[in-house]
Amino acid sequence: MGDEAALLVADMYEAAGALRRLGEKTAAAEGLTQARWQVMSVVAESPLTVPQAARRLGVSRQNVQRVAGDLVERDLAAFEPNPDHRGSPLLVLTGAGAEALGRVTERAAATHRAVFGEIPGDGIHAAREFLRVLLTELDRYEAAGGEDAGGSEGPAQTR
Length: 159
Description:
two-stranded antiparallel ribbon
C-alpha cells in the first residue's frame, strides 16, 4: 500500500501542476493570472476582508493583499468600508471585474467540457468522493499534529 500511496501522491502532484498550467493559460487569455482569478472568484460570492479571503483560499494574507492591490490598480476590484471593522476594508469586484470574471469563468467552463468530455460522469463523481475522503484524512492527520494512531510515519505531504 505504501508504494501505491506514494505513486498516488506523485500522480496528484502531476495532475495539480497540469491543472495549474491550464488555469494560468485560461486566465491569461482574459488578461488575468490564476491568483487574480481566484481572489476575484472568492470575493464575487460576497465582499470579504483580505484576511477572510486568504483563509477561504488557504493562502497567506500577504499574498492576497498583493493580488488585491493589483486588482484595485486595474479597476477590477475596490475596497469599501467595512461596517464591522474600520481598519479592515472589504474587497469587492467592480463592474469591470465582474465582467472579466464572467469571461474567464465562461472560458474555463468550455475548457472543462473539452478536457473532461471523454471521462464518464460517474468516474468524475468517484474521483471527487475519493478526494473528499482524502482531504478529511489529511485534516485529521494534521489536527493530530502529524501523528497517526499506528505510530507509522503517515503521509509525507499535507495540503
